[in-house]
Amino acid sequence: MAQIIACVDMDAFFASVEQRDNSSLRGKPIAVTGAGERTVITTSSYEARAFGVKTGMTTYKAKKLCPHIVFVTGNNKKYTRACKQLEEICLRYTPDIEIYSIDEVFLDITGSHHLLGGPERLAGAIKDTVRNELGITCTVGMGSNILLAKLASDLAKPDGFQWISEDAVASVLETLPVKKLWGIGPHTEEKLRAMGITTCGALGRASLPLLAKTFGTVGERLKDMGNGQLDRPVEITAPETQSIGHSITLPKDIVKREEITSCLLRLSEKVGRRARRYDHKGKKITLTVRYADFKTFTRQITLPVYTNDTGEIYRFAVAILDRIHLLNSVRLLGISLSCLAKAGGQMPLFQETGREKKASLAKAVDTVNDKFGEHTITFASAITREEGPGVISPAWRPSGVHSSDV
Questions:
Q1: From 207, 257, 338, 394, which residue has the greatest number of CB atoms within 10 Å?
Q2: Which architecture characterizes domain 1-162 according to CATH?
Q3: Alpha-carbon distance 286 to 332, whole Å?
């Protein structure tokens, strides 16, 4: 049985949700942003894209390109709720799905499409269900692997459907720019251009030794991609968690140690809480610092024992900070916990040790915050002016350890 993969990609997702919920925004060029003065565009409507407004662009540049653009502060809870609804819809058509990002899902429909009258009818059913239940549109692309399914959805947007059959692969790829292939970024594109390779057809015919000389072992994969081949299955189960982290772009640059440590405590609380929720402990703490001039660096420390305790995560993060001679004001801070292992908690049989008492206290605090909301109980020094919503991490997922409050 020939494999068929579908890519369900939401159209201008955040902007579409905002236009759905506010009729006055429909048909207008809008851009969804984070809160604060230093935000960037997270998603723009197709009306705004017609003027050249793109994701990652500053609001100043967007306004210059489209003077009548409307900026909307993002509501992350609405977008994550819609993603969870999208997950539920996709599971009606096959159990074999991968939530690739907040607005994109891969489905292996090899064994289920015949139940709905074939791939085209299944795609139509998904599109109709998304439109009826979510009130927004999606595009569905199909192919024999994830690479082709993703490409088909990109080529068919918005609100479209395309199936790149095996017979059509060569003709579709022959003149297609290499940058259109999933996974080929500007750096790789530039290297290929220097070799005289600008189209997928040329990439598929390129000399493997020549590609290997420039790209090493990746060269063979690039050649396969130029021929529409990618040996990557739909990851039905979430990949093993490598780290748990949070970062924040600050409303304004900070330099005072007490301001930095207060932010680190809040980040440590988020990391520790999520680690405890999903029964993980870690042995390595990484601190990320970004200066006002956007120079970014990380520093790490390996702990003597595994932990998911907020206080310990914070203490070691501050220890890392104290080893750094800050050369500029700070724009962004992040903390991650890695080298993870399952906590495997169990009830103590004998009198609790100090660590066990702290774990019991953390569990009690987590229970309260689960019931009444984040930061109902928190450290006094972590209480700061509440920031508005930021940009959702690319690692966010609707379930599992990568699901977090936004």
A1: 338
A2: 2-Layer Sandwich (3.30)
A3: 14
Catalytic site positions:
104
pLDDT tens-digit map of 153-200: 999 999 999 999 999 999 999 999 999 999 899 999 999 999 999 999
**β-pair partners for 32:** 43, 72
* Type of residue at 47: E
For residues 135 and 7, give the distance between their C-alpha atoms in angstroms, rounded to a whole number.
Answer: 19
CATH superfamily of 169-226: 5' to 3' exonuclease, C-terminal subdomain (1.10.150.20)
DSSP code for 223: H
- Half-sphere exposure (Cβ direction) of 246: Cα atoms closer than 13 Å: 24
Whole-angstrom distance, CA of residue 61 vs CA of residue 64: 5
Higher pLDDT, 251 or 292: 292
- Beta-carbon contacts of 131 under 8 Å, excluding residues fewer than 6 positions away, are 137, 138
Length of the chain: 406
Tell me the CATH number for domain 243-382: 3.30.1490.100
Is this structure's pTM higher than 0.85? no
